[in-house]
Amino acid sequence: GNSVTQMEGPVTLSEEAFLTINCTYTATGYPSLFWYVQYPGEGLQLLLKATKADDKGSNKGFEATYRKETTSFHLEKGSVQVSDSAVYFCALRGAAGNKLTFGGGTRVLVKP
Amino acid sequence: EAGVTQSPTHLIKTRGQQATLRCSPISGHTSVYWYQQALGLGLQFLLWYDEGEERNRGNFPPRFSGRQFPNYSSELNVNALELEDSALYLCASSLVTINTGELFFGEGSRLTVL
Questions:
Q1: Among A19, B37, B38, B51, which residue is least crowded by beta carbons within 10 Å?
Q2: Which of B4, B102, B109 has the most A C-beta neighbours within 10 Å, making it the best mutation to test the interface with A?
């Protein structure tokens, strides 16, 4: 079945540091890939998505590229802010079904 | 436009009782999904409803059940509550049933079982 593996946290950074969260997946067919973010006390919000190989999703300074050859969708941001402190989830939506399969989540804490 | 709304925000029950959680999808969305987010981080898929029918079910016991009403709102029922059912239950909806569309999430219902 489909699965998503992402790096465990917590990840602690200083403001303006570079952030990378690794995400790899296993899926049949051609899944769509997503990054969701959960700020403290809130529900999940879509951060970005990519629906086919080599697509790059971007939003709020975050980027991720759909790499089919390495089955990866790593999240990056060049200069994080305190307001980026949150839990980040990598997810896929498989071609054969419609539910989202999530990774375990990565907590990111950005210190001033 | 209103987002996905869930009620109640918080619910406290004791072991053996039943809990009912409710979800209203974004207007026009026909698919509703339920996820459990237990202590820690992980999101576990529970149920997917579309057009009133259960389309998929996660690896949960039968005491987790639900339904979708003609107006596409949904209800999650948990019978014979156990301590480990304590979690945040998230509902999501989507507009289309193709795999490129994102799910829109509510803020969740936090269930505490004592």
A1: B51
A2: B102
